[in-house]
Amino acid sequence: MPTSLPTAASLYDRVQRVIPPMEWPTFASDIDAILELKRQRNAVILAHNYQTPEIFHCVADIVGDSLALARKAMSTEADVIVLAGVHFMAETAKLLNPKKTVLVPDLRAGCSLADSIAAEDVRLLRQRYPGVPVVTYVNTSAEVKAESDICCTSGNAKAVVESLGVPRVIMLPDEYLALNIGTQTDVEIIAWKGHCEVHERFTPADIRELRESHPGVTVLVHPECPPEVVAEADFSGSTAAMSDYVGRRKPPRVVLMTECSMSDNVAVEHPEVEFIRPCNLCPHMKRITLANIRIALEQNRHVVTIEPEIAGRARLAVERMLAI
Ligand code: 13P
Ligand code: SF4
User: Is the pLDDT of residue 92 over 80?
Assistant: First the structure.
């Protein structure tokens, strides 16, 4: 007997604490349409932790940080993958699933880190530091990954750097992630000057003010924040690590200094935790909506393609990371 699909109405209970009843009717018909389209097309939706709750909790099949999305992308049996996230994430899914159709609902969903460096910059760095391996954050284009020895995410950067068994690495393009990892390892790290436009805006003063206005608050930050912000926090980790921290430690009051939707998504699972909400929006993540996910599935757009020669080299760098 075929199993029946959930309906938007049955899903509302899950998100009612973070989506006001007035807003729900604007989402319900797209949710029902997307659930049916996924069935018709044998499609899965992979959603990053920064997607809004109506995407994250109501239509996504696989959710997580960049590392989890990359890993889980490999094990899907679906014919079509819709990446509810930014373009580099869709490219990573395509690298790992060359035969599947990978769709990104809005081609403008970019990333300030990915935009901060081009393949030619990596070639020049290699000339300047001959023999020094290049560790590349997944927040980059396939062309940049293709020039790299190995990729990393915020969840495994230290392990990747140390896996190489060398005294010095080039780590690009996020200067702050590189500096933050540099405080945890003896490996010397040569950094690039890229920054995340969302996380670079948090300051140590923000944290001090929060601690004054919300006594006892536990402060979690993403390692794309400047090192002086990380130094003031109680914990720093990838989006998945922040979410796990809340689940394991259940702090009575917490602030996630990262993209705004993270708190909403984690709050759905933890009604007992008070979430304080200073956060910054990622304009790129916010380009993905239920409406354009529906159109992506209806019209098969935008299909992610990567030039085969680039894809071959970029895939190696991603696969080396996943083998760790
Ligand atoms: P995570 O890998 O921690 O999910 O981070 C991705 C990202 O883009 C953070 O800004
Ligand atoms: Fe890029 Fe920052 Fe947005 Fe993440 S939050 S996608 S690093 S701009």
Answer: yes
Give the bridge partners for 218, in sequence order: 254
Kindly state if the Cβ of 92 falls inside 6 Å of ligand 1: no
Cβ of 111 less than 6 Å from ligand 2: yes
Rg (CA), the chain: 20
Residue 5: pLDDT over 90? no
CB atoms within 10 A of CB 38: 20
CATH number for the domain formed by residue range(s) 8-109+285-299:
3.40.50.10800
How many angstroms does the Cα of residue 7 sit away from the middle of ligand 2? 32
Q: What 3-state class would DSSP assign to 91?
A: helix
What is the atom index within ligand 1 of the atom nearest the CA of 198? 10
| Domain ranges (residues) in the chain | 8-109+285-299, 112-195, 199-276
What is the SS3 assignment for 82? strand
CB distance 30 to ligand 1 below 6 Å: no
Domains 8-109+285-299 and 112-195 share a fold: yes
Residue nearest to atom 6 of ligand 1 (CA): 66
Ligand 1 site, residue 196, Cβ cutoff 6 A: yes
**49 close to ligand 1 (CB < 6 Angstrom):** yes
Q: How far is the CA of 237 from the centre of ligand 1 (A)?
A: 10
pTM above 0.70, yes or no: yes
Question: Regarding the domain delimited by 112-195, which CATH topology (the fold level of the hierarchy) does it fall under?
Answer: Rossmann fold (3.40.50)
| Dihedral (Cα; 8, 13, 16, 21), 10-degree rounding | 50
Residue 233, CB half-sphere, CA atoms under 13 Å: how many? 24
Short-list 256, 273, 275, CA closest to 199: 256
Report which protein residue has its CA nearest ligand 1's atom 4: 65
pLDDT > 90 fraction of the chain, expressed in percent and rounded: 94
Rounded mean pLDDT, 251-258: 98
The CATH architecture to which 199-276 belongs is: 3-Layer(aba) Sandwich (3.40)
Q: Is the CB of 138 under 6 A from ligand 2?
A: no
